[in-house]
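An instance noted here:
***
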Amino acid sequence: MLHKIDRGILLCIFFLITFSLRVSSQNHIVIDTISKKPISFATVSSNRFSGTVCDEYGRFKFEGNPADSVEIRCLGYQTKRIRLSKFVDTVYLNPISTKLNEITISDAKPEIVEVGLKRKGMFWSLSAVYQIATLLKPSDEISDAKIKFIQIPIHLFPEKSVETTPPFLTVIKIHIFSNKNNLPDKPLIETPITLYIKKGDKKKILLDLSKEDIYFSKEGVFICIEKVGEVDRNGKVLVDSPSSMRIVCTDVNSKKFSSQTYIKTKFEDHWKKLNVKEFHLDRELYVAFRLTLEKYTR
């Protein structure tokens, strides 16, 4: 009888220890501290776990050890680090304060100018692991012009292996930042632009910034592109699925503005210049952006 009691006690102790070493998987949500709205497709990772992505409504599930340190990050927000033992259902992220442009313009009618990089049939296959950022610096001729539209040429190539009914949607997030010391600094738009791209869409992404006050300052602007992943019919983000979209690039810079490509993984905060050898490239690569500008008389 004593043996049975001891065995029962040992089983209780075992289950208590197991429970204390694991935090059960449960639903969490990431919220903007200012707007109180969910943050779509934020990245969640820990020192032992490669990471997961929130869904469109900011929801995610996470399981790990109480000693784990969890990081939640999203372009345009301050990264938050929490020990899993102190994890709560709702996680708030602080947006990085938006930079206000201080440009003096005249009352004259603006001149519409289009500038861009020439396409050369080169492509960048977007990965759900990396984020790319392009620093564009204007020539004196177009410095301080207002940015009305940004075109990003794309190439869609759904392979038979990833075709479904209905097809996956490729989710892309785009953000625009000011430049400080050749690194992305303050957001120039309040929240990232989220795009859902499917088979049959046009061969370019058109960003309408006409209602924003974004000026092509001499310091330049960063345009950041992130592939969140493919989304299936149930809204689940598939970060490891084959990419069905490529960004059209070139290796020739524009005479109207210079271009420099930076890269980082979505699980870190530090950008670095694109190392062409690291990605088995034999030349520099630039996204073939086209900009529509309003140029004012100074």
Q: What stands out?
A: Helices lie at 2-21.
